[in-house]
Structures are given as structure tokens and as C-alpha cells.
Amino acid sequence: MIVVDTNIISYFYLNSDYSQIAEQTFKKNPIWSAPLLWRSEFRNVLTFYIRKKIIALAEAIEIFECAEELLKENEYEINSKQVLSLSLSSGCSAYDCEFVNLAKDLEILLVTQDKKVLHNFPETAISMSQFLATH
What we know:
Blueprint: E1 2-4, H1 6-13, H2 19-28, E2 32-35, H3 37-51, H4 57-71, E3 75-76, H5 80-90, H6 94-106, E4 110-111, H7 115-120, E5 125-126, H8 128-134
Parallel strand pairs: 1-2, 1-4, 2-3, 4-5
């Protein structure tokens, strides 16, 4: 199991420059986990795609349902005190620190492309290319 942030989920379900490597990441470890926050963030990404007329509402709903199925049983509530402490000590957003906190709590890796998270949490966060090369 790995923790993935909303960007990785988005790359996996929506066409982007990172889609192929996200698929490879999934093949290497198909058990993905995330804090419940991923739902709101992913809905926001899907809304952006709808407004830009990249996908239709019906497709967005289908994509979201697929993502829900993938992450079911691996979604977690996060401790606010720990998130706030991580955010203050690192300068990363509280949103990003929810994913970091989950990875730390579960003692597993967070796969992300977020440079600030990768820089501030090298013991926890790893890029997709690093994950594929080393795990």
C-alpha cells in the first residue's frame, strides 16, 4: 500500500503528461490510500475539466465513481493537531500535510510530484519516477 495525493489520482484518471507514469505506479502497487480530503480536491479537479470542456459531467461522475471504488476501504480521517504541526514546521499547506501525516501514521510512502512536499519530507515522500526505480 502507498499513499497517493490528489494529483497522482488525477494523473491516473485524466489524460496528462504524467498519466503513463501514474499507470506504471499503479501497476507496481495497486493499493492506494488517501485522507478523505482527496474527495473534495478531486471533485475540484473534475469541475475544472468540465468547465474547460475537456470532459462532460457524466464522464466526470463516472471517473469519480471509479476513483471511489479504487480507494474504498483505504480512506482515512486525519489528526488535525499533527497536520497543523507538520504544516507549520515545513511551510507546506495543511492540505498537503494531510497526505504526509497519513503516510507517517501508516508507516508507508507518500507518492507525489509536489516539489515542496518532496523537499520537506524526503523520509516520507517520493516521486513516481523514484518509486518506480527503487520499489
